[in-house]
Amino acid sequence: MKLLYIAEIVGKAGLYSLKKGIGELKLREKPDFIIACADSVTGGNGLGRNHAAYIHKLGVQTLTTGECCFYKKDLTENLEHIPYVLRPENLTPGAPGLGARIYKWGNQKVAVAVLLGQSGFGRLHGENPFTRLPVLLERLKAETPCVIVDFHAEATAEKYTLFALAEGRCSAVIGSHNRVQTADERVLPGGTAVICDAGRTGSQDSVGGNDREVRVREYLTGIPDWTREAWDRCELQGVLVEIGPGGKAAGIRRLKIPISGGGKTGPESAGEEHG
């Protein structure tokens, strides 16, 4: 099995990069299943319902989110009815939606789960991912040996510690949230593919996909501003994971696809949210 994970899509530039690059990736890599981190699509923070549907129509089977999962009301109110969007698994039991799900492709099954780290998040707090992970994997592996975990976390130490706990228990743990692609991808001896952060899809000459001047001003004044998006040097980033029949990873490779024709585009090109 070839699994394509598309790194965090940030704003309209991220949507543009996804639209322009996903076709080439499908032709070149021929992935069996595609996952994308969509935590920062709509306005650079959160995911709107229309954008979720747009990304799904482009061929992404599963969209993962993180601490911004409930930022957009139209998605939050409909999470129960959108099976291709996952919020973090380790939230309170009363949270809408699901944090893990079994998906089918052909005669095969793949399980996808999202866990939220505990360090550095001020607005949304998850329960301990380390106590939740073994129970979660036991449940998912009862149906399929192929289990992919998106660990949406801030701290590198927390990610590496979860890698150690997950080794040999799942096919891959892919780090997200930091929006900077790391060069530490590898398959652990137990057969689990890991990377600290898959990166971001969108502008690379930016601060995490956001306009640099705006972010500098935010640090100087303490006033957040999401009104200006960055468009320079767009890329589609992510990883390709190869998984054997028994659910063990056979390889992991970073992807960086330069996207030409950036610049500010209209709603049709960037998949702009309406309504």
Give a count of the beta strands, DSSP E runs of length 2 or more: 14
Tally of distinct domains: 1
Runs in which pLDDT lies below 50 for 5 or more consecutive residues are 265-269
Which geometry do the CA atoms define? globular
What would you say the CATH architecture is? Answer: 4-Layer Sandwich
Largest β sheet strand count, sense and barrel closure = 8 strands, mixed
Rg result = 17 Å
Describe the structure.
- With 275 residues, this protein is of the alpha/beta class.
- The protein has a single domain (2-262), classed as Purple Acid Phosphatase, chain A, domain 2 (4-Layer Sandwich), CATH 3.60.21.10.
- 25% of the residues lie in helices and 26% in strands.
- It contains 7 helices and 14 strands.
- It has helices at 11-29, 49-57, 73-76, 129-141, 156-166, 212-221, 267-270, and strands at residues 2-6, 8-9, 33-37, 62-64, 85-86, 100-105, 108-116, 147-152, 172-176, 186-187, 193-195, 200-203, 234-243, 249-258.
- Strands 1, 2, 3, 4, 5, 12, 13 and 14 form an 8-stranded mixed beta sheet that branches. Strands 6-7-8-9-11-10 form a 6-stranded mixed beta sheet, covered by helices on one side.
- Mean pLDDT is 92; it is low at 265-269.
